[in-house]
Input
Amino acid sequence: MNFTAGLLAANQGGFTLTYIWDQATPEAKVIIIILVFFSIFAWSVMGSKAIQMRRARRLNHYFEAEFREQKSVLAIFDRKLQVQGCPLFSVYLDGCTDLDGHLQGPDGQRKEFATLKALEHVKRALEGSVARESLRLESGLVLLAAAVSGAPFLGLLGTVWGVMDAFGGVAIAAQAGSRADLAVMAPGVSAALVTTVAGLLVAIPSMFGYNWLVHTLRVHTVELDNFAQSLASRMETEFLKDE
Output
């Protein structure tokens, strides 16, 4: 059977998407359109977050390598560098800004040592910076989670609604004396089931993308925590005066 004959047979059997779409109820069509927008939104979120996290991982790697080569904690800070999109640099900048403020003397000169209380304040500033960067990386994931959990239920709603209409139509036809068999009911049921398929087509890729992004986010959060602890330790070693 060639392609044309196969397509004709499918059309005659009523199993093409065009035929199913024509048989779908207005409610099912509205739900499918909503799911299409859900799919576009979910893929855009997954794409943008994947690019953001990949760029953050690359910049973190470069910055951490540069930081380890510095003899002084404040060396990069004193160079007034600006690195957009690098979570480690943002944490470093917040911590060094707070430390520099505590090291400023009355004459405007930087003091050689900081007090233990000042360094404790810097640690809290680093913790707050880590939390802010984690939230920034996490932004948008809750909307993706909504697509994962909501799309199947929207599809199920369309299916239940369509099956209800199909059985109702069969009952009305039977009462009117018309023939009510599987051939009459099948188009409506198949049109109803397509909403569940559409919901799953939205939810399944979103689920895999969401799980990957959550795992990547956890890795970034652990890296931020480890860097903040390492930075605080170097600050204590360099600026806390031995008693």
